[in-house]
Structures are given as C-alpha cells and as structure tokens.
Amino acid sequence: MAATAVQKIKAAIRDVPDFPKPGILFKDIMPMLQQPELFRAVVDAFANRHKKQKPDVVVGIDARGFIFAGAVAYKLGAGFVAVRKKGKLPYKTIDQTYDLEYGSETLSMHVDAIPRGARALIVDDVLATGGTARAAADLVKKLGGKVIECDFLIELTFLPGRKRLGKLPVFSAIPV
Ligand code: AMP
Q1: pLDDT-based confidence at 135, cuts 50/70/90?
Q2: What percent of the chain has a predicted confidence (pLDDT) above 70?
Q3: Residues 6+ apart with CB under 8 A from 2
Q4: Residue 155 a catalytic site member
Q5: Domain extents for the chain?
C-alpha cells in the first residue's frame, strides 16, 4: 500500500480508551470505513496479494472481519465463509474454544463451509493476541482446508499475535 494511504488510514482509525473494558485501547475503524477511498485501499491491498494464487474461500471473522472479507471475496471471485461466535450460525457447526485473558470464547463454522482441500484466506480487522485467528485457522484445518494467509488491517505488535499463529503466513497493513 502507498505510504500516503497508510498515513491517511492511520489518521482515520480512532483510539477509544477503556472500551469494551478498562485497560483496552479499542481501535475503532468506523471513521476509516466512512471514507470510500480508504475502505477501497484496504480491500485492494488484501486482494492484490492473492490475485495470482487465488483462495477458494475468504474466511471473515465475526464481526468486523466480515466487512473486508466479503469485499475481498467479491474482488477475487472467491467464496465467503463466516466464522461466528457460538450460537449465531443456523446450521450444524464445528466449534473451537480458546482462552481469553479472563475466561474463554468459542467460535463456530458451518460443517460444510470449507470444501476438502480448499485454499482459505482468513481476514479480520485487528490482530491482538492471535487467539481468534488461531481458532479460525483451526476450524479451517478441521474441515480439511488449507490456510494460505491471515490478513489484518491492524496488528498490535506489542502483543504476541504473530507468534500464536506459528507458521501461518501473516500480513498486516497497519502495524502499530
Ligand atoms: P485476539 O484474539 O486477541 O487477536 O483479538 C482479535 C479480535 O478481537 C479481533 O476480532 C478484533 O476485532 C478484536 N480486538 C482485539 N483487540 C482489539 C482492539 N484493541 N481494538 C479493536 N478490536 C480488537
């Protein structure tokens, strides 16, 4: 992505302290999404990485990951798959539970979401501790798919998200 675009996107991401709980600096991407040229620059940055070796499916993570994943899937001519918080998907699911700082979270995917052997691109807005993307990648693998990359708009580099994703290729447009 062009350096000027990176600067504009950075400036359009709003830091909200103590949301959703004390001590968290929430990266609010809504002001960035309101600017069409910035939204498009992010979608293009993700899609352009995979033009030559296209994914079969783009996996979006509940909920802001859907915004980018749907657009990237459309642009690449790939399918879209939703990873959702448990209890939100209507059909049979496979689940993956992972630890949070306090407690745990369970993510779900429809049992027929990933054709065996499918190449899957995982997309989300923020890479923090990596637990969410790790769980999404585990769901793809459980169904016999192959994760080709995990793409994020923002990476919180002071957290060990990349490490938690192990050998999976990771791209972040805006490391902070
Ligand atoms: P993690 O599993 O810790 O990598 O957290 C990633 C998920 O939580 C993503 O789906 C993000 O949307 C959300 N998230 C985590 N930290 C933040 C943050 N500081 N600002 C906005 N979203 C966040």
Answers
A1: very high
A2: 100
A3: 41
A4: no
A5: 52-175
52-175, CATH topology level:
Rossmann fold (3.40.50)
pLDDT tens per residue, range 4-44 = 999 999 999 999 999 999 999 999 999 999 999 999 999 99
Helices then strands, counting H and E runs in the chain, come out as 6, 9
Residue type, 143: L
CA–CA separation, 64 vs 126, rounded Å?
9
DSSP conformation class of 133: H
Is 164 a catalytic site residue? no
| Residue 100, pLDDT score | 86
* Dist. CA 115–CA 119, nearest whole Å: 9
32: burial class by Cβ within 10 Å (0-12, 13-18, 19+)? Answer: buried
Q: How far is the CA of 127 from the centre of ligand 1 (A)?
A: 6
CA 130 distance to own-chain centroid: 10
- Determine which residue's CA is closest to atom 23 belonging to ligand 1: 126
